[in-house]
Amino acid sequence: MDSDNAHHPAPTKFNTCVFCGGKPLTKTHLWPGWLNDILPRQPNFNQNSSLATGTHLTPEERQTAFQKHKKDIFDQQPYLACYLCNGGWMKEFEDEVVKFVKPVILGTFRGRLDQRQQQMLAGWLSLIIIVSELASFTQKTVSKADIEFLKIQKKPPENWTILATKLNGQTWMKRKQYHSAAIYPGLTLDRLPRTGEGIPKYNTQIATLGIGALLVQVFICPARQIVDRYRSDYAHRLKILWPITPYRRLKFPLSHAWNDQEAEFFAHDFFLKLKEIVHD
Question: Which of 67, 129, 204, 208 could lock onto 267 through a cystine, CB 3.0 to 4.6 A?
Fold first, then answer.
C-alpha cells in the first residue's frame, strides 16, 4: 500500500485566482449554502483514493492509496477564486441552476429538463468537482484547458461524462467519493509523465456525488477508448446527463431509485475495473 503522504500532499495554498490569476482571493463555497437549508446537516464521509496505472509499472505503483475525511464538505470555503470570478461566471451557474434544481434534489420534480437546463446543471456539477479537487489533498487531475473551457463555454468538455440516477438513501444523501488515476495506455514506465517528486501525474477522475435524491457520477479521462467503455458499461443503468444527446431531454423521476448499498457499489465499480482495463 502506498503511503497517503506520497499521493496526498497538503492542500495547495493559492496566491491568485485559479480561474483568472486575479486578486484578492475570496472564500469559495464547495457547495452552495442553500443546500444546507434543504438537506439535513449531518457529518459527511468523504473518501479519496488514487491509483497509478499504465503499462509495465512496478507492483508498488499499482497499489491504491486511500484517504478519508470525516468532515462536512458542504461547509468548506477555501480561498480559490477572486471576487470577479466568484461573483461573475461562477455565480451565473448557481443562479441559473437554483431556478429549477431544488425539486430535483428533493426528488419531487416531474417532467423534463430542457437543453439549456441540462447544460447548466452539468456545468454546475462540473464546477463543484473542480473546486472540491483543487481544495483537496489529492493530486489534481483536471487540466487548465478543461477549466478554461468550462469558464468560457459554460459547459463541460465533450470528453467528460456525467451520469445520473435517483437516490433513495440516508448515507449517500450528502456524500462524496473521489477516485483519481494515472492512465497512460501503451506508455512504458520510463515514459510516464511524473511530478517533481517522481509520482505519476494523475489525469483521470471518477467522482460520485450524493445530493439529496440525486446521485451523479463524473468521469474524466483523456483516453477515448476508456471513455467509450465507461459509457457503454453504465448507459443502460443510469441516464446520461452529459454529453447531451440531441433531441433527448432528461426526464424525471430517473428510473429506479438506488439505495445506499447500490450507490456505494457504483461509486467504486469502474475504478476497480480500471486496473483490468489498463493492464489487459
Answer: 208
